[in-house]
Amino acid sequence: MRNSSPTVGRGRRLSLAELRDVVEHYADDVRAGRYVAEFETDQRWHVRIHQDDDVDVWLISWTTEQGTELHDHGDSSGAFAVVEGVLNEYVWSDAADGAGLLVNNVREEGDVVAFGPAYVHDVRNHREAPAVSVHAYSPPIRLMRYYDAVASTIRHTGSSWTDDPEAPAPRSAAS
Ligand SMILES: [Fe+2]
């Protein structure tokens, strides 16, 4: 049966509820030992564990103070589930007056977060214990955009056309 959800690129954009189901399904697989995370201290370890036309799914590990830059996911919606450990997620929140701020959210084992394309966040592990999380993007990642938070605004610092949500952020000419 034809699904009525809008199509983007090759596949269908999953709803946020579907994305939550996807990451919970693969988080259960990780807990069952079907996928095993590795840990690297020099760079964030990550591996794609599923991809089809509609969604890609990544298993990511975070050692102490490993984190992303402030970024969005291009046109993709997404979700992530914390399988092990604790992550701090700094989410950019626009205020009505045009100013904004980074809101610090503590995401613990079992937490699931789903978001649409306009979502800008920075995820990191401040704890001694490593963390493991499962991330899904729909449609599959094609573009990552990076930002700096300056006072009450965010400044776009660069973009990468990539299918890898963990690709290194391009550095702006100013940095
Ligand atoms: Fe992200």
Automatic annotation (TrEMBL):
Family of the protein in this entry: Belongs to the cysteine dioxygenase family.
Entries under Pfam families matching the protein: CDO_I
InterPro entries for the chain: CDO_1 (IPR010300), RmlC-like_jellyroll (IPR014710), RmlC_Cupin_sf (IPR011051)
CDD domains, sorted: cupin_CDO
Keyword Metal-binding: yes
Annotated Fe cation binding sites: H71, H73, H121
Domain of life of the native organism: Bacteria
Keywords from the UniProt entry: Dioxygenase, Iron, Metal-binding, Oxidoreductase
Official protein name in the record: Cysteine dioxygenase
Gene3D superfamilies in UniProt: Jelly Rolls (2.60.120.10)
GO molecular function: ferrous iron binding; oxidoreductase activity, acting on single donors with incorporation of molecular oxygen, incorporation of two atoms of oxygen
Keyword Metal-binding: yes
